[in-house]
């Protein structure tokens, strides 16, 4: 086999592996979070920007995917159900934190207060486990002061920090806010 054919075959195999990985991740997200993914409020997060041009919806989806990947890569044996649901709901604050009218009313820093808002919103709509509550409450550590106490919360916190950094510096780009 000449070099070009070998290169093309390896590239095809790599693309196939990536496709299979994304397919497995989509299946896990659907299996553990279908009710969240189909909810009107979660879909409304497509209308708010998180970091850069990334919507809150896409950010939460990315955090869920990277949480699953971290769990698998590091062989952490996290509960996938709690991991996915906590990651999808970690930024379930349901407002545009860039809105000047919102900022002038609250006079508070979004980064410090949105975890509790997200938790209150999530508890209104879903039955949450203690681990899922922990993920949502503590994902902003060290701003949340008290560190996470379970593996799942640490994984989502790490995935959130990674995704936020990539979005802020423009390496993960979204498509801007869209109508629901």
Features:
globular, 2 strands, 180 residues, mainly alpha, two-stranded antiparallel sheet, 8 helices
Question: Could you give a quick summary of the protein structure above?
Answer:
The protein has eight helices and two strands.
Give an overview in words.
With 180 residues, the chain is an all-alpha fold. 66% of the residues lie in helices and 3% in strands. It has 8 helices and 2 strands. The chain has helices at residues 3-37, 40-44, 56-73, 80-89, 100-106, 110-125, 130-138, 151-168; strands at 49-51, 54-55. Strands 1-2 form a two-stranded antiparallel ribbon. A hairpin with a 2-residue loop joins strand 1 and strand 2 (54-55). Helix 3 (56-73) packs antiparallel against helix 4 (80-89), helix 3 packs across helix 8 and helix 4 packs across helix 8 (151-168). The protein is globular. The protein starts with a helix and ends in a 12-residue tail after the last helix. The relative contact order is 0.16.
How are the SSEs ordered, and which strands pair?
Blueprint: H1 3-37, H2 40-44, E1 49-51, E2 54-55, H3 56-73, H4 80-89, H5 100-106, H6 110-125, H7 130-138, H8 151-168
Antiparallel strand pairs: 1-2
């Amino acid at each position: 086999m000449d070099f070009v054919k070998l290169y093309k075959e390896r590239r095809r195999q790599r693309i196939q592996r990536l496709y299979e990985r994304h397919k497995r991740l989509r299946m896990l997200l659907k299996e553990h979070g279908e009710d969240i993914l189909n909810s009107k409020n979660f879909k409304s997060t497509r209308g708010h920007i998180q970091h850069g041009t990334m919507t809150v919806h896409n950010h939460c989806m990315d955090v869920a995917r990277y949480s699953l990947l971290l769990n698998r890569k590091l062989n952490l044996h996290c509960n996938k159900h709690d991991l996915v649901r906590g990651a999808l709901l970690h930024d379930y604050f349901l407002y545009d934190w860039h809105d000047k009218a919102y900022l002038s009313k609250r006079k508070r820093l979004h980064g410090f207060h949105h975890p509790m808002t997200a938790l209150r919103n999530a508890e209104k709509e879903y039955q949450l486990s203690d681990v899922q509550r922990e993920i949502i409450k503590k994902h902003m550590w060290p701003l949340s002061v008290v560190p996470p106490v379970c593996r799942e919360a640490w994984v989502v916190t790490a995935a959130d920090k990674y995704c936020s950094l990539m979005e802020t510096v423009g390496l993960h780009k979204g498509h801007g806010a869209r109508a629901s």
